[in-house]
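Priority: medium. Attachment 1 of 2:
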């Protein structure tokens, strides 16, 4: 049974669409623990995936295009990385579980609808020791 949800705190954040994906990764860092540079590359993949998803509905084709050599070269340019450094980061993203079988881990993909003007993320903390006295 899902508990009734009330919002205790709201923290409004403003961002451009291009910067949103970097901010998103910062908000969910506890899920991925990526370095700043790894977040830059992941944000570039997420941003490109978002723009591609506005034109491509088939997830298999979307992933093929996203992980194509052409898109990877575009991401290397966007993030100002050499081929060697990009390959090292790609290996780290695979090891961290962010990329598997040329797909992004669904846990890190925000469900951002095309044309959306806002995005809401709700963190629900279940506190198991509520009511215990502190020393």
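Attachment 2 of 2:
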């Amino acid at each position: 049974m899902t508990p009734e949800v009330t919002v205790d705190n709201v923290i409004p954040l403003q961002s451009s669409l291009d910067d949103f994906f970097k901010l998103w990764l910062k908000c969910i860092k506890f899920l991925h623990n990526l370095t700043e540079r790894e977040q830059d590359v992941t944000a570039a993949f997420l941003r490109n995936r978002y723009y591609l998803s506005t034109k491509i509905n088939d997830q298999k084709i979307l992933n093929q295009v996203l992980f194509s050599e052409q898109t990877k070269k575009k991401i290397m340019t966007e993030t100002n990385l050499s081929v060697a450094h990009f390959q090292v980061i790609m290996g780290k993203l695979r090891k961290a579980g962010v990329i598997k079988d040329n797909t992004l881990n669904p846990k890190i993909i925000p469900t951002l609808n095309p044309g959306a003007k806002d995005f809401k993320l709700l963190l629900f903390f279940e506190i198991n020791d509520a009511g215990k006295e502190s020393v």
